[in-house]
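Much of what follows relies on a compact textual record of a protein's fold. An example makes this concrete, so a full record is given next.
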Amino acid sequence: MATRIDRDFTFQAAVHFEGKFILNYYDITLSMDVQTESIKEQNIAMDRILYFLSESLSNSVFVHSEEKKTIEKYNQAGIKTCILPEEPYDQIITVLLLMKFNAITEGKLLVTDIALLSVLSDQVRFLYDLDSASNHPFGKGWWSESTTSISDIVKHNKKDKIVKLVKSCDWSNIGLDWNAKLIKPTEIIFSNELEKQP
């Protein structure tokens, strides 16, 4: 029997728009169909969404991919940049997040609907479902990868002439792969019987 669930999330990030760095706060509601019978896999899939929002997107800045000098400056300053194929409007972020969530849950949860509201959206909530999101011509990118990546940027080391891909976290390194071993907790036994004194 298919189970349908909803969950709310929040995160804080910035947008780089018209030469300005603007802080923003996002509220997201996801509607999902549970696609696996395994409670463990359901929990891992949900934890992946939580991890992606809290560790990858939180405190990052959304930047249009054409702003190459700006992206380089943010990277040099140690600021996480989430590279978007268009300007960082909420409707673009909404569609890309819907696709990313489905990529990282790998069919264990199916995000069918997303609603996104931000402080900068003037109380307008953007709603997308799976069908409308699939009609956007964004092609392949970080949003279609089952990783924690928020960028497709390649870093160039001018001194050594070495090209390095921006690293993303491997799910197994943080215990969120599908074959994660459960750690058995320490067992403590309580007894009501008083020990006999000699």
Observations:
- The chain has one domain: 3-174.
- The CA atoms of residues 152 and 159 lie 22 Å apart.
